[in-house]
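Researcher: Re-running this chain for the archive, since the previous output was lost when a drive failed. Same request as before.
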Amino acid sequence: MWPMGGAWLCQDIWEHYAFSNDRSFLKEYYPILKGAATFLLHYLVVDSVHGWLVTPFSMSPEHGYYDSHHQLSFLSPSPTMDIAIMRELFSHCREAAILLGVDKIFRDQLKIALGRQPPYQVSKRGTLQEWIEDWEPAPSGHVVSPNFAFYPGSSILLRRDSLLSKAVENGMIEHGENEGFPDAWDIAVWARLERPDKVARAIREFVAHCLAPNLHNAGENQSDASFGFTAAVAESLLQSNNGEIHLLPALSAEWKNGSVRGLRARGGYEVSMEWKNGELLDAVIRNINGHSGCRVRYGSKTVLLSVRPGASQRVEGASLKGLVAFSPNRRAH
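Model: Regenerated structure tokens:
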């Protein structure tokens, strides 16, 4: 029993739009976003202790806790993963309605509901709190669910939310290594934390213990592990969840030299890069269907690029100051 599955699936609809900027796609599928958000608005109740709007009963998937009587329990109002999924869905639904110029009253309802959501909290152990109360977690189960707020969601951001990001990192250290889909999720979270050392170790462990000879998941048929791994590798090379295109945010410490072509960034962009000795040589930013301006980050430096739709721009990795005119004959190797 978990009432948030449909809301989670809506994340894919928004991400497809975010990467493609396809307004006609968004218009076609907006009713699904609205339907899921409407269901949750009717489902939420007022928490009698804090006055928050909460899911009346749910669970943190595949993980239990010990309640105040030290009884193993699973159901609770608004576990952290519920909060994270609703923050994503309500925000995306509002933005979609604004872009499409529809449902003003509904947008206002979502804004009010977002303001009454439980806040993210830090547990007494210094980790991101998994439930609405700081209960003792059970020793077994998948403890990665609260990380949805950090990845694949973006309601906790590394540079904006330093205390919560540190709590995410503490939780990653506490739960140690996983196998299967939690391991793939771990790689992506370490990438968002910009820890190339941890990314390298997690990738090495995943390849050693989680892959079958045919490169599918060993042991169990976990497609979410296999596809999650490719998503995590992409996340270590390119991120675009914070209003900017971030180049090589968590390049594995073991991938000294290399290149990549055709990675997609939110906003309708495509990126190809080449690096040597762990440092970016250059990147080509291609505007497929985006606005004419985008912010590009490498390390601590950012630059605002002006790239018209259909055009490309090359960025020098040395300082991000050496912008040069893009030549169609220049290719990222």
